[in-house]
């Protein structure tokens, strides 16, 4: 290319005439005020100059740099043809430009539709993630004896063979970071790589599960690995984190859609602190616009734009915090002169970014801003290591960028923050433009180049393959720059300069010129890479992640469906059996309770009746101390009888305890039989039963002692009947025996004595005889008190107890206590059976719900797997490196 960048007389005039041959062969379009290409000098025109001329003549659809805002669309352009099949050079260039435009627009539309489709898929995945939390792949990480080397690869259209390279690092380097479905082969070109057929593994390997590109859940906590942290969380927490990742991916896809539809290109210049970013930007502009210092001086984003977008005025628009910039709304920014920019970028409390409008009077083949093809914004970012807030802002800003120019200090190489930034940018940008600044200060330049290229190989293999175009070692401070006003050259040579020093400066300037040309080609001539490739790369990465996630969740849903189906087969019989057991056991419990209570009641009633009936059969060991102690004897005898009845009650209670133990054990056996280990065994303590006062009604029975109680006529009559029977037997015996033996003389003597006494004397003896008989009867009665009093008292006590229904009351009290005690294990067993039926029913409902959700999830993730795979094939079909069909014949190189 015959052109002079650094003529002391300034740049070539814009109105210089072009070569007559070119003007004659160029199709004449209506005057639009657009820029034209011109050749300075008499040298031959290079291939790149011819391509640039072609791009100027045939705008690729951007049209943003046309002065009057008019552009010729593909439909308006006339594509020349010749009947004999031969076209002139200008016609071939025009036809190639039209083909290139159609090819570019077709790819742009395809990627735009893919972005819309992927956004729909992600939104549906978000909705599904709420009802059925997505399963994150779980892989056990193998332990290694040594720290692995650091490696990194980037997903591309067809990188599915081989494994990621790794660069040996120090023992303190982090574990290797790899991307799924990637490969790097130094002996193979990127285009050949992209054309290889893709292999889609069905099984989830550890590499695929761990190497999500976009949907990776980046967690850091101490020495724990990311996979260990993810799989230690609950399923809901993972789903929440995944939902956040999906939301950020949707936002990024929206940004990508805006970027590919935008007619301008944004170039972000970033790097570590004091890497020389501002110096590099000034060298590109050939003007000292941005402040430079040995200390960090750029604290906010400075976006350098062509002054034509600001009505041709050179000025700085400082955008207020929390304000959206609008050039037509002066309330959103403050206006400053270019000379005041240094004060603005240092004091960053008031502003978030600056819009710097500058004029670039260089020719279109030299200028980056005034290139005649597309509007370019050059963004100078704060250093990555300045502070957390600024570093985070740079990370977020890179998502809006088409081209990232990463400035590296030749002395410091890549820091950890720089590596993390490049890894984050690699989610969509397979190619990065890397500038190694301050190269003139390095003594061993070969060693520096080797070390940095090795690091680039591990961070961005695609960039390393194109290192001749994308990695440059320069010294930006050696490039002459004019002042902010644009007058004078800041790097002119003094007459006394050393020729050897001039030669070195020329080499530095030549290196920087090569960088400029490579950057122009990357931004302008290879817009498919710089503009569309980030969208394609990100789409492939997100579709690969979605495809792997859908594959994993399809298998999980199928496994879950099989599990719940088998579980339902087991639950249905268990539930039916549990319901039947509940009814049967309820009847058995009632029978056990009723039988036990009835047996206790009958036994108690029979025992108490017998005790009351036979309480007067003896004196119960109470001694009779004579007539004068008769009443005391009666009270003691009454107490002894009551004690005897109480002992019968105690015996009945002990019997009831024994029967209760049997009933409790019977119920317990039913519980163990039907509930097994789920049966809650209650501890039964029989000694606690009947701790209250027994037969309180018996203590309230009051039986008074009366005189008649000492005479039991029934007992006496029964004894007289016994005596009379004995006397009659003796009379008969006395009458018969004497006769039999002839001994009847004593009766004759008695009758003789009665005759001797006579009637008068017999009358006199009647009263004394009666008295004697009375005394004899009284003595007999008093002598019979120990035998007659117990019966009399027993009769009165029985009558009193019958009046208060003593037997029934105690029988009912004891049986009620037994019923109450049996009710606890019975109710416990009923509750257990009820809970068992309830739990089984609830498990069945939950299982049915899970089965329904699993069926929906299986269908959804199956469709998602198929749709994501189809969409990925569509995106892979967008070959941005291959030339447009027919372009070679048309003359497009």
From TrEMBL:
Residues 261-534 form the Dynamin-type G domain. Residues 166-183 have a biased composition (Low complexity). InterPro entries: Dynamin_N, G_DYNAMIN_dom, Mitofusin_fam, P-loop_NTPase. Its main location: mitochondrion. It is found in: Mitochondrion outer membrane. GO terms for cellular component: mitochondrial outer membrane. Coiled coil: none annotated. It is a multi-pass membrane protein. GO terms for biological process: mitochondrial fusion; mitochondrion localization. Keywords: Coiled coil, GTP-binding, Hydrolase, Membrane, Mitochondrion, Mitochondrion outer membrane, Nucleotide-binding, Transmembrane, Transmembrane helix. Pfam families: Dynamin_N. It catalyses: GTP + H2O = GDP + phosphate + H(+). The keyword Transmembrane applies. PROSITE patterns: G_DYNAMIN_2. GO terms for molecular function: GTP binding; GTPase activity. Gene3D superfamilies: P-loop containing nucleotide triphosphate hydrolases. The keyword Mitochondrion applies. It comes from the Eukaryota. Residues 1-44, 160-203, 480-508 are annotated as: Disordered. This is Transmembrane GTPase fzo1. It comes from Colletotrichum siamense (Anthracnose fungus).
